[in-house]
Design goal:
The complex is a heterodimer. Chain A is mostly helical. Chain A contains 5 helices and no strands. Chains A and B meet through helix 1, helix 2, helix 3, helix 4 and helix 5 of A and helix 7, helix 8, helix 16, helix 17 and helix 18 of B.
Chain lengths: ~150, ~500
């Protein structure tokens, strides 16, 4: 799916929407459908899912016929590192505290750019930590531990 | 007169020291963030939204509105100084604004943009104050059928006017509608698509969706994109416009305000389409169309006024009908809901201080903008030059802490991470994310009205074409779809965009 050759935006999009629509429709089946007059919780999402997968198919076919748009190249490393930095922050902020979460996030995220040096990471984390403490903890009164035990 | 009475209530609410301070802070921070290249109003508001949650509803909304105007103006500043539009509505400002800047008239260009925006903002505020009560009266006549039809039309029009492929936009709206349904079903109380997780019963946190799809996706896709950013800002020149420039700007500002005010009202309208329309009109009316694209004053003044007027009047359908006409309005609705206010014709009656306070704050926000921005331009110029590697970790961390602060839990951060992956995938597939956000906000509402309509008619689908209003709106939506999907005409549309851009 992530091949770098181009002309695949519509193929991939079509596939994605078809699968997502299909998944929604099939998951809706576990809820009551009801009747048109008294709809159960399953009917509306079921209809949306079917409609989406149909439109997905149309997009897919459009891609197959060669009318599709060119896919952009996904910057894979930045994507992985930025996402990882979010996950790491979420994981650490309550278990290890804000200080460690911010530092870890900055170090990981900064690796995504070509400008990474340890010195810059350290300076940025220190500044951010002070900023977050002053704005969020002190002014807005959000309860976040600096260091969790 | 009622109008002035109401505005009086509004100014009373908005002019308290507390609200004024937060309006000021909102405009300041909004400009500061919006000025950063690559960060449009959507990403800016998503990023700053959690900051307003702990405030009183009136204060919070006033601050968000301030952030919005700030971000909008900040985007124009970047467009003029470095030729980097933060958002689609600023593309037009690049054309002649940046050319003026390169001729050493950057200061004048910024002043024209500020004054044009302020004038447009003043007119649009009066229009909102005058028209909202009337539209709200009409909205009271709306039943579930009309609401459903209105939403279909609004979503179709918004998708049409969003960038990129129409059919992918429709698919994105549907995806958003589905994601919006996650959580407890209003009618039966059944938990849908929660996968047994209790934390999902209230639905997916919409700030997490917005941050993931806009702010974080922008970071991932811009991080290695150094070349475009290394443009140095030209010298400012004289920070005031000459008499000749003022004369050239006057009528375009007037016309831009009119176009923007009207287009902002339409579903799917707003800042972007207004600025494009105004640019096209000025070019046609000008006695020197050859100057356009080479620093024509009219080519900057008109669109700048139009985009601000449009940005503002698009509040009218949002406030009176509860229907967002663009992504920013979708965020506004989300923000209202956080403060337990369901946007719609009832807000005006049940929370007059909020409704009129917000409107008064629009004008105050615009006034602060002009007072604040012109003297601070040197500061903004320095901000634009800050390296991206310094900015993006700051954005990431501030967003993360903000996400945590919404409900003192980390779950929204995990969701934002997921939506970042999704947002990047959409970026690769060239599927515009703003329609998804509209669908996400409208999902539950649309389902409710759809179900209620069919309950009223006892399951007879004919109810949707028995109300004349609904027929008109659904018919308009159908016509849009047919026209866009006819391939020859679609090719014409993309050509029109190329011509204007």
């Amino acid at each position: 799916m992530f091949s770098t050759s181009n002309g695949k935006a519509d193929l991939e999009a079509g596939l994605f929407f078809t699968l997502f629509g299909g998944l929604t429709a099939s998951l809706s089946l576990q809820y009551q459908m009801g009747t048109i007059a008294a709809m159960g919780p399953g009917l509306f999402p079921f209809m949306l899912g079917i409609l989406l997968s149909f439109i997905g198919l149309v997009i897919f076919v459009k891609g197959l016929l060669g009318n599709g748009e060119i896919a952009r190249n996904l910057p894979l490393w930045p994507l992985i590192l930025i996402t990882a930095s979010l996950l790491v922050f979420a994981f650490l902020v309550l278990t290890a505290g804000l200080a460690i979460a911010v530092t870890a996030q900055v170090v990981i995220a900064l690796r995504a750019s070509e400008h990474f040096t340890w010195k810059r990471a350290a300076a940025l984390s220190a500044g951010l930590l002070i900023f977050c403490y002053v704005v969020f903890v002190y002014f807005l009164g959000i309860s976040l531990p600096m260091f969790a035990v | 007169m009622d109008l002035f009475n109401n505005l009086g209530i509004g100014f009373d609410a908005a002019l308290s020291l507390n609200n004024l301070t937060f309006c000021f802070v909102g405009v300041l921070v909004g400009t500061a963030i919006g000025i950063l290249p690559g960060l449009g109003p959507l990403a800016t508001i998503a990023m700053l939204l959690p900051l307003t949650y702990s405030l009183e509803p009136v204060t919070g909304l006033i601050m968000i509105a301030g952030i919005y105007y700030g971000a909008q103006y900040g985007g124009s500043t970047t467009a003029i100084l470095v030729n980097l539009p933060g958002e689609s509505s600023a593309i037009v400002s690049c054309l002649d604004g940046h050319q003026m800047a390169r001729k050493g008239r950057a200061g004048a260009a910024l002043a024209i943009a500020a004054i044009g925006s302020f004038f447009a903002g003043t007119v649009a505020t009066l229009l909102i104050a005058g028209f909202s009560p009337i539209l709200a009266e009409v909205a009271f006549l709306f039943g579930p059928v009309e609401y459903f039809a209105m939403m279909v039309l609004g979503l179709t029009a918004a998708t049409l006017l969003a960038h990129g492929s129409f059919i992918k936009g429709v698919a994105m709206v549907l995806t958003g509608l589905i994601l919006g349904l996650v959580g407890a079903d209003v009618n039966s109380g059944t938990y849908r698509f929660t996968f047994g997780s209790f934390s999902l019963t209230e639905g997916i946190e919409f700030v997490a969706v917005a941050m993931g799809l806009f702010a974080f996706t922008d970071i991932v896709t811009n991080i290695r994109n150094n070349t475009a950013r290394e443009v140095t800002a030209p010298t400012l020149g004289n920070l005031w416009m000459s008499r000749k420039e003022a004369k050239q700007a006057a009528f375009p500002i007037l016309r831009g305000t009119m176009i923007g005010s009207v287009l902002g009202l339409l579903p799917g309208g707003g800042a972007m389409i207004s600025s494009f329309a105004s640019y096209a009109m000025e070019k046609r009316l000008s006695r020197h169309p050859e100057e356009f694209g080479h620093g024509a004053v009219a080519g900057l003044a008109g669109p700048e006024a139009a985009n601000n007027a449009g940005a503002q009047t698009s509040f009218i359908p949002m406030l009176t009908l509860g229907i967002p006409s663009n992504g920013v309005m979708a965020l506004m609705i989300g923000a209202l809901m956080v403060h337990n206010i369901a946007p719609g014709p009832f807000v005006m009656v049940s929370n007059p201080d909020i409704f009129w306070g917000l409107i008064a704050s629009m004008w105050i926000g615009n006034a602060i903008l002009i007072v604040l921005n012109l003297p601070l331009i040197p500061l903004w110029v320095r901000l634009i030059r800050v390296n991206y590697w310094i900015l993006f970790p700051i954005i990431l961390t501030v967003c993360c802490v903000g996400l945590y602060s919404i409900g003192n839990r980390v779950l929204p951060i995990y969701f934002a991470a997921g939506f970042t992956l999704l947002g990047c995938l959409f970026w690769r597939m060239r599927a515009e994310a703003a329609p998804l956000l509209l669908g996400f906000i409208l999902g539950p509402l649309m389902e409710e009205h759809f179900r209620r309509a069919l309950l009223l008619s006892n399951g007879d689908v004919a109810i949707f074409y028995q109300s004349p209003l609904s027929v008109v709106m659904l018919g308009a939506a159908a016509i849009i779809c047919v026209i866009v999907l006819l391939p020859q005409i679609r090719r014409g549309r993309s050509a029109a965009f190329v011509e204007e851009a």
